Amino acid sequence: MDTIFIHGGSKRSLRAHSIPFMVASGVLRSLPLNSKMPRLAAFLVLLLPLLLSAVGAAEAEAELTRGGFGFKATLRHVDANAGYTEEQLLARAVHRSRARVATLQSLAALAPGDAITAARILVFASDGEYLMEMGIGTPTRYYSAILDTGSDLIWTQCAPCLLCVDQPTPYFDPAQSSTYRSLGCSSPACNALYYPLCYRRVCVYQYFYGDSASTAGVLANETFTFGTNDTQVTLPSISFGCGNLNSGSLANSSGMVGFGRGSLSLVGQLGSPRFSYCLTSFLSPVRSRLYFGANATLNSTNAQPVQSTPFVVNPALPTMYFLNMTGISVGGYLLPIDPAVFAINDTDGTGGTIIDSGTTISYLAEPAYGAVRAAFVSQITLPLLNVTDTSVLDTCFQWPPPPRQSVTLPQLVLHFDGADWELPLQNYMLVDPSTGGLCLAMATSSDGSIIGSYQHQNFNVLYDLENSLLSFVPAPCNLM
Predict the structure, then answer these.
(1) Can you tell me the distance from the alpha carbon of 382 to that of 222, in angstroms, rounded to the nearest whole number?
(2) Is the distance from CB of 188 to CB of 61 less than 8 angstroms?
(3) Contact 376, 395 (CB under 8 A)
(4) Is-contact 289 283, C-beta < 8 A?
(5) Number of other CB atoms surrounding residue 173 within 10 Å
(6) Which residue, 143, 349, 384, 460, has fewest beta-carbon neighbours within 10 Å?
(7) In b/e form, how buried is each residue of 87-125, taking b as 16+ CB within 10 angstroms?
(8) Strands 233-247 and 155-157
(9) What are phi and psi for residue 12, nearest 5 degrees?
(10) Which of 5-9, 52-56, 257-261, 283-287 has the lowest mean pLDDT?
(11) What sign results for the dihedral spanned by CA atoms 430, 435, 440, 443?
């Protein structure tokens, strides 16, 4: 149990123990055909001659084995150095989270029964959280991109840009790069797309972000540069999307880098299937860290050893990082939740539990969320706040309490196959600026559960695809 002693009743008295929550970059998905897709596909086909005349139609299918190397990179939060106050950072995060919920509700009615759209808790990628730098082309031009563990495609907006969204850098111009090569329709990368199009033997991609954003263009190979100065690597023949038709928001970035389990992701293409990240506090000016390949290692601490739990493959959503979650404890008591609540539905691939750095707060399937909420209400001696129906966070308590009153908060532990993730207080409680209440940084989901990045902060988290394991250990991420 954690006890906070409050003197004077200031909201800031919790700030030393809490981290304002972040919002999802979510998951980049290519959704099944809907009313929007045929129109965009038809529009794209009409414009292909213009695109291909500008960027050329050479084909390349080079393959390269890249095992045994690694690099380090820094991750920048999307709102970093933007001059926002703590209250504004929280308000922006809450606003983005509300937008996410609205998208989830619209997806619920999009294609009932379809395995991809039914996993609607995962889909909202038009707002990003963490950005990484990448260099593209020869000569190298640098861009910031959203890191997304829930998707595969690497892409950026390209000239000639027929329909593009705001970004902080000029569009990548393939005509100015000596190493750009468009890919043919029979290439392995083209065959790995969900919905490839083919025009004069050139592969054309189209990806959709839920109901609010999309990208389409030419699939190509190019030279990419990753990492900081001391570990920088330059790699030829990386397949990526050169987007000429894009809509939505890029969260002050210029594209996306997919870190999912599919063959088109950075992990899949580099042949070094392990990476880790260590996310600093939302309010910290220190950037977070990303480690790839040989640089991705974990070390046990004196207080806690490294824990590991196996990944679970969901054939309906193979790019996602599913885990076998077995239960939740609150205040030392294992809640009466049937483990089937966290399991994948064998019939259609819905449900299950996913870990994703692009999602902010955690979403728990009912009745798991209901059980967690009831446990917090029974164990916290503060009045429960009434919240609106549109509020993302609905387990909120009156805050601050009377002066000189101590408040005991229950410990929260997430149980997985072979591992118990004991969360520090600042990883699951926050003060919501819209209500002023002390809130549980979790929300309810009508389909499946997802463990978000708010719960990952100040943990070193390793994705080991070679051994199919997720490992984690507490770490001072601001010192790494």
Answers:
(1) 57
(2) yes
(3) yes
(4) no
(5) 17
(6) 384
(7) eebbbbbbebbebbbebbeebeebbeebbbbbbbbbbbb
(8) parallel
(9) -70, -10
(10) 5-9
(11) negative
E strand or H helix that includes residue 16: none
SS3 36: helix
Q: Residue 408, Cα to own-chain centre: how many angstroms? A: 32
In whole angstroms, what is the distance from residue 412 CA to residue 417 CA? 17
CB atoms inside a 10 Å sphere around CB 395: 24
CB atoms within 10 A of CB 76: 17
Q: Where are the beta strands (DSSP E) in 166-282?
A: 181-182, 197-199, 202-209, 213-226, 233-247, 255-258, 274-278
* Number of C-beta neighbours around residue 50 at 10 A: 12
User: What tokens does 46 get?
Assistant: 């009409």
Phi, psi (rounded to 5 degrees) for 314 = -110, 110
Dihedral pair phi/psi, residue 405, rounded to 5°: -95, 135
pLDDT tens for residues 183-240?
A: 999 999 999 987 788 988 999 998 875 545 678 999 999 999 999 878 889 999 999 9
Region of residue 8 (left: phi > 0; alpha: psi -120 to 50; beta: else): left
Nearest-angstrom CA–CA distance, 471 and 308? 4
Using alpha carbons, list the distances in angstroms from residue 4 to 99, 381, 400, 405: 32, 12, 11, 9
User: In degrees, to the nearest 5, what angle opens at C-alpha 259 toward C-alphas 60 and 261?
Assistant: 85
Active-site amino acid positions: 148, 356
| pTM attached to this predicted model | 0.83
At 115, the amino acid letter reads A
The answer to whether 462 and 471 have CB atoms below 8 angstroms apart is yes
- Pairing between β-strand 449-451 and β-strand 396-397 as defined by DSSP bridges: unpaired
Q: Which residue carries 């695109």 as its tokens? A: 51
Rounded Cα distance between 446 and 36, Å, is: 25
SS3 310: strand
Using 50, 70 and 90 to split pLDDT, how confident is the model at 46? low
Q: Which residues, other chains included, contact 46 with Cβ-Cβ below 8 Å and sequence gap of 6+?
A: none
Cβ burial, residue 478 (10 Å; 0-12/13-18/19+) = middle
Residue 440, beta-bridge partner list: 429
Encoding tokens for residue 176?
């100015």
At residue 182 the predicted structure's pLDDT band, cuts being 50, 70 and 90, is very high
Would you call 369 exposed, middle or buried from its count of C-beta atoms within 10 A (0-12, 13-18, 19+)? buried
- The model's confidence at residue 60, banded by pLDDT at 50, 70 and 90, is very low
